[in-house]
Amino acid sequence: MKAITYDAYGTTPNLKLVDVSPPKVGPGEVLVRVKAAGVNPVDWKIAAGYLDPILEVRHPVIPGWDVAGVVEAVGPDTFDFSVGDEVYGYVRKEWVELGTYAELVSAPVRTLARKPRTLTFEQAAGIPLAGLTAYQSLTRAGLRAGETVVIHSAAGGTGSFGVQIAVALGLRVIGTAGAHNHDYLRSLGAEPVLYGEGLADRIRALAPEGIDAGLDFHGDGAVEMLQSLVKERPRVVSIADYEAAAKGAHQLWVRPDTADLTFLAELADAGRLTVNVEHALPLAEAAKAWELSASGRTRGKIVLTV
Fold first, then answer.
1. Where are the CATH 3.40.50.720 domain residues in the chain?
2. CATH 3.40.50.2300 holds for 2-127+275-305
3. What's this model's pTM, rounded to 2 decimal places?
4. Which one, 38, 142, 156, 280, has the greatest CB density within 10 A?
5. 230, 141 in Cβ contact below 8 A?
6. What is the second-level CATH architecture of the domain 130-251?
7. How high is the mean pLDDT in each 10-residue block of the chain (306 residues)?
8. Distances from the Cα of 288 to the Cαs of 11, 18, 186, 304, in angstroms?
């Protein structure tokens, strides 16, 4: 099969499109014929070696965790899905080696759910990591309908999912973003607030009695800023500040979860969760996709079509 690989830590030029053996399919796994693979910043950060202290990486690596495709085979004693089922998922395994930038990927069933019926494969592949991160951040903060949440970096890939999910859950959402993204946030149902100096005061003007929770999807001192605004200090969740736990906040690392993926699929099929695919590139252009991701100038999702 064709797959993108890299042999050592380095930069995007290390990516190669090569022929490799199809993956084995063990108990509790299915073989997925990949239609689209989502591109996330973590993919190129792993390749650069930034996560080496916490992730087991075995070279050569096929990168990628997000996938949408069709079940081609099932492993022994595996009955969760059948051949021909359309699925999507966050295929994070025990170590980084056999990912989704390939024609075929073996996926533990705990990492998959049935693909949203109303979305294309490209749209579905853009959801798993970012969508799960947003939803699990909201649940980690213990938010309930009627409460107010601030989402820091609300127009980004994770933030825009967070806004839509929060609105669907009945929350009031205040979202931070640059001025050029304010109309976009309003279209998703958030009240936009401008980044930069004086941000905390602008949020206080919108929520003078305080906010119920804060989600940090950006870092750069946001945890402390959000803690100064929440009614209860522990209700701050960060995916961007690796010292969040030491500061009394929750530091979240997203987990594969079939039930959560199913919830997101149901939101999408109900028209409550949309996916903006800004770039859909062929598998051979994975290096270009990483360059676009690293530029930080892409509002929507980047996917590779297979």
1. 130-251
2. no
3. 0.96
4. 38
5. no
6. 3-Layer(aba) Sandwich (3.40)
7. 96 89 97 98 95 96 98 96 98 97 98 98 98 98 97 94 98 96 96 95 96 94 95 92 94 97 98 95 97 83 96
8. 12, 17, 31, 10
